[in-house]
Every structure is written in C-alpha cells, then in structure tokens.
Amino acid sequence: MAEQADLYKYFEPTVQLNTLALSNIHTLTSWGVGTAAGILGLTGWNGFIFFLINWVVISGLVFFVKCKSKPSVYFKSGFMDIAGSTVMNTLLSYVLVWTLMHALVYVYD
To answer: Are 71 and 63 within 8 A, CB to CB?
Structure first.
C-alpha cells in the first residue's frame, strides 16, 4: 500500500520542470568551470579534479540553498537526482569547453 501512495506523491510535470532546471544549472556551471580550467591552464588529472570539486560544491549549493536540505520534496530520488543525474552529460560539456579554452589561450602563444 505504501508503494501506491508514493505513486501519487509527486506531480509529474513539476518533477520534470525541477529536473530540467537542475540540468540547466549543472550544464551552465560546467561551461563556466570548463572556461576557468582552460584559462588556468589545467591539464590531465588536475582538470578532472577541478571538475569534481566544483561538482560537489554546486551539488551542495543546490541541496542546501535551492532544496533547503529536503530534496525528496522536489525530486523522486532525492539527493541522487541532485548528485548523479546528469554527471556524464555535464562532464562531456566540461571537457569540450575546457579543451577549447585551453587551446585558444595556450596553443597560439
């Protein structure tokens, strides 16, 4: 009976809107962080560690500021939606912008 009650707990259009907003936050911040990593000249593992640190900071800010430490109100999977939902797509965007900015700043010196 508890599973049936969980089916009606969330209004699906609102959950989809929250997920879209979260995806936009992660994507836009990955572009900014990728730009910063490229301009700073980070290469190799340093760039990926920089991404990981920023991913944790952004996820923490979304968790504490936007969700007010209650992500299960806004997302079906709670914290897992915030921390792991779009990590691979965001990582690909980050690497694209990181390498572009690094090439623009350092290759043509």
So the answer is: yes
